[in-house]
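Q: My labmate handed me this sequence with no annotations at all. I'd like to see what the chain might look like in three dimensions before we decide whether it's worth expressing. Could you predict it?
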Amino acid sequence: ILDAAADLFTTQGYGAVSMEAVARAAAVSKATLYAHFEGKDALFAEIISCRLAEVRDGAEAVALHDLPPRQALREMGVRWLSFMLSPRSVAIFRIVMAEGERFPDLAHAFHAAGPEKGLIWLSGWIAEEVRRGRLHADTPTSRAAEHLIGMLRGDLYLRTVLGLATPTRDEITAVVEAATDTFLRAYGT
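A: Here is what I predict for the chain of 189 residues:
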């Protein structure tokens, strides 16, 4: 169901896709679809949540607190930025930007299931590194997490979302290296 819905949303747009179309594409009944999701916004939120869980699980694998912060930040950063720049993530972001004003529940679902959860997770990781004395934060760890995410979502991200670039692994790595260096100058011990 989630794959079928994601394919429909990214090819047709949020507003043009009905729950009936999703049920048809997923080869399930509408009753089955509604048994799992109360509406289109809940379905979209679950797609975002599952996508974020994939990248979060990968980040957690490298974000164990036994890695030096620089190494963990680099590996997490490459995973996150690669995820954010993937064709499906870019397509979903474009949908939210194009249709979020007409469908406020869509924008809220996207933010809560994606960026907000990611920020909470990263804030927790930073807080644990501060507790261990490996980072310091004069501001709340949520602000430190915002700073890191903001550096990752710079010009390469903007050019990709606008369809002006297809990022390479080297470009992604360069952005992550610069963000990591800057972050550690501000928050490293």
